[in-house]
Amino acid sequence: MKKIVILIIVFFSYYAAAAQGLVSIQLENATVNELFEVIEQQAGCRIYSDPEDIEDIRVTLSRENETPLKVLERAFEGTNLKITPYNNILFVAQSRRLVASLPLIFKKKEDKGAEEDSIFVAYDVSRFLLQDDDKKQKLISETKVYEIGNARKKRSGMVTLSGNITNYRSEEPMAGLSLHLNNSTSVVTSDANGFYSIRIPTGRQELNVKGYNLKDTKIQLMVYENGVLNFGVEEVMQALTEATISAERIANVRSTTMGLERVKMQDIKNIPTLFGEVDVIKVVLSLPGVKSVGEMSSGFNVRGGATDQNLILFNDGTIYNPSHLFGVFSAFNPDVINSMELYKSSIPAKYGGRISSVLDISEKEGNKDKVGGSASVGLLTSRVTLDGPIVKGKTSFIVGGRTTYSDWMLKRLPEKSGYKDGSAEFFDLNAGVSHKFDERNSLQVNGYYSYDRFSFTDKQKYSYRNTNVSAKWRRIFSEELMGSFTGGYDHYDYSTKDTEIAYRAYSLDFAINQGFGKLDFLWKAADKHTLDFGLSSIYYSLNPGEYLPYGDESVARADKTQREKALESALYINDTWDISDKLSVSLGIRYSIFNVIGSRTYNTYNPDYLPSLLTITDTKTGSGIFKTYHGPELRGSIRYAFTDDFSVKAGVNTMRQNIHKISNTTVMSPTDTWKLSDANIKPQTGMQVAAGLYKNFFDNLVETSVEGYYKTMDNFLDYKSGAELTMNHHLETDVLPMTGRAYGVELMVKKTRGKLSGWISYTYSKTELKQDDDRAADPINRGVWYPADFDRPRDFKFVGNYKLTHRFSVSVNCDYTTGRPITLPISKYIYQNGQYVYYSDRNAYRVRDYFRMDVSFNIEPGHRLTKLTHSSLSFGVYNVTGRKNPYSVYYVTENGNLKGYQLAIFGVPIPYVAYNLKF
Questions:
Q1: In a 3-state reduction of DSSP, which class is residue 51?
Q2: N or C of the chain: less Cβ packing under 10 Å?
Q3: What Å distances lie between residue 326 and 21, 107, 426, CA to CA?
Q4: Residues 496 and 479 in one domain
Q5: DSSP letter string over 591-608?
């Protein structure tokens, strides 16, 4: 009984001492961290120190009922460690004691006496404080040491550091920032949502963060185990926006990805464009390997691919027609766009459905701190954008609208053009809401709607619409695993109304609807392996054409094509293996499945002949899933870095495409229709191999690259002479599956900083097609290779910006390209009393070469941060030399003679002025 009483007395004495902040310790040859842990548990205080200051110290100590301060002073006798108490916190620092009160200069005179013999030490106390993920993210500090994980659970080897990077002021995600460790050639890049994940060794590390308009930042880390570091960065005030494409000055050398161009709208706002409108597609066309068939072409061709072979994504939704106003403007409001990524090769495994390229465009998130916006007035368009917090620090919105007043331009056309009485208008609307539930969960919802209407006469009217709605939930499951879950709906339609002849008046409509869902995961599986994996599915419902009488007087016969439905699904996985700092490999596979869904009626044909109405063998009705195409798509790339600023890369990828654009023009047109693969039209397939050299000079000030590629295309659709593409119920009888090939080399020199910035590129490439089908009795050009309509071998581009002063700059844009191929009439002949024209081989000739120079003078806003609004002004001239670049050549019969004419879209210099306001 006496022993029990003694134990009870000792027990309560211990906790009584603890309640008074006293501790009792028995330690032998323990680490300082173990000492801190015992003190914190017994006294309920917190102790902070620099890990480097204490890592070599061992403690042997026996103390009873003493204050934490006395215990620490006893433990550190004979060392140069000093202890500073502050409220319930103890700071341990080398050689100096922290003054936990205001310095003398902030004290009243009567208070100075007690401090006159003290020395105020300007020591960064914040370096000891761990980041609190539940609080608002703070501006990253270069002097603070960020502890990652628990020092008492320290691991060895490699661990994972992940998190989100935001703008310190607005809390908007910072995309495209590069992160790498000192003395390492490996680099990671923050994604469109500002998320990053990097493998780093434990111990003391220095993480470098680089980005355009961002001061190069070095983050001091003490890494014990896996952890999350969310932080804010502050963009530096630049006198002028430099004309750079890529935010990273080192990613071109250190990443495994080839053929990737990242574009931020703030980087290219001074590039001269038609009518002064900052244009996403026109900027894409200034990049090497990207071409178009001429001015006002809304589509673009990437490394020899057709316009429909580019997947254009906006907030994960598909855009089928990326143009406004006949191709003068793109369908994207530049003020709501955050960044763009164009993949010309090394296409990530999560993307599929096209065989040439992927253009992924992401919208800004609204400012979570304060309300702001921008407005712009130009010769043809005006736009306004507004964003701000709904719940400060948590929920934000962004809305934007754009419209045109372009009829005045058509009124200035000559009378003989036939378009003087025409009209054209468009508008687009963007809206987005983003919500941050906590540090691990966020939701973003976006909507987009655009409408175009135009007519050349009162009797012919055209219109088309894009609609996209998407929602993305992002979750960080752990330091090693992050996922995103996306769902949405896409719609595109066009309508043509012709009332030229009342009794034959008609309307012609086309529409495509699709619902989609995606699950994407990023997993740091091991020290040297990063896995991307996921699945996606798209449900298509397509109306290929609906021809209906229009008006009470019309007797036109109604006609409807069969509705097409399909389900496209895919699974993918990709492993990025950092074998060493110098050698990295990325290997992936995507397996896609395309199910054609009925009920639909289709023909079968004699396999010994090309499909025609004469070779039909049967007509069947398919229901449910009546045809399936499937197959693997391989992705692989390798990078070897000889030094920090020089590397070589090589890669290969194979792709499948299950939807085809049906058009009798080489450009994208509002009246294009789309066709799903079915029982008679197979998916397109493509393969590309590429290799390149990447070298930076002058402390990464100048980037250079040389990339070569070779690609093949199968089942690329061309058309028979006289093919009927509108309201064709058996389209397979008028199309020809072709074999294609493209090859080329791209050289680029880019200067990213300084008074003069910009890039120069030169591309030599060839794109050829061949009708490689033994069933063809008279193959195109006798079955030999011939140039594709968009084959333009030589391409030189220059984009530059020169700062005259802090506010004034001059920008120049030059573009030289080989003329596109054409087919010409070369003779006439008479047969059975009829006169006929004999044409050359297909695309045997070319229009003359294309050259254009644009110049602008830019006045940037002043840098008075207290001003309510900031404005900028740009004056420029498009096609300053007034060159009449031929868009096409056509022939008409006049008085029995065949005469040729050359069509130029813009044959004179076009001046413009654009005013922009930001508030």
A1: helix
A2: N
A3: 78, 71, 11
A4: yes
A5: EEEEEEE-SEEEEEE-TT
> Residue 669: which CATH number?
2.40.170.20
The answer for residues whose C-beta is within 8 angstroms of residue 744's C-beta and 6 or more apart is 289, 303, 304, 708, 709, 763, 764, 765, 766
pLDDT of 535 higher than 90: yes
> Which CATH number do you get for residue 216?
2.60.40.1120
Q: What distance in Å separates the CA atoms of residue 93 and residue 273, rounded to the nearest whole number?
A: 58
Q: What angle do CA 752, 753, 756 make, to 5 degrees?
A: 95
Instruction: Report which residue type is found at 219.
Output: I
Give the separation between CA 509 and CA 493, rounded to whole angstroms. 7
- In one-letter notation, the amino acid at residue 29 is N
Indicate the SS3 state at residue 639: strand
For residue 599, whether the previous peptide bond is cis, meaning omega lies within 30 degrees of 0, is yes
Question: What are the percentages of helix, strand and coil residues in the chain, rounded to 5?
Answer: 10, 55, 35
691 within 8 A of 737, measured Cβ to Cβ: no
Q: Which of 533, 439, 542 is nearest to 494 (CA)?
A: 542
109 & 155 share domain: no
Q: Which of 431, 436, 365 is CA-nearest to residue 167?
A: 365
Residue with tokens 């021809």: 547
For residue 664, is it within any domain? yes
Give DSSP secondary structure letters for 293-322: SSTT----EETT--GGGEEEEETTEE-S--
Max Cα-Cα span within the chain:
134
Residue 202 has pLDDT above 60, yes or no: yes
Residue 209 lies in a domain: yes
**Tokens in use for 8?**
């009870």
CA distances from 406 to 324, 325, 904 (A): 11, 9, 20
Distances (CA, A) of 919 to 276, 372, 393, 836, 916: 20, 5, 20, 65, 10
Average pLDDT of the chain is 83
pLDDT for the residue numbered 353: 94
CB distance 487 to 504 below 8 Å: no
This prediction has a pTM of: 0.79
pLDDT of 108: 41
Q: Which residues contact 580 (CB under 8 A, 6 or more apart)?
A: none
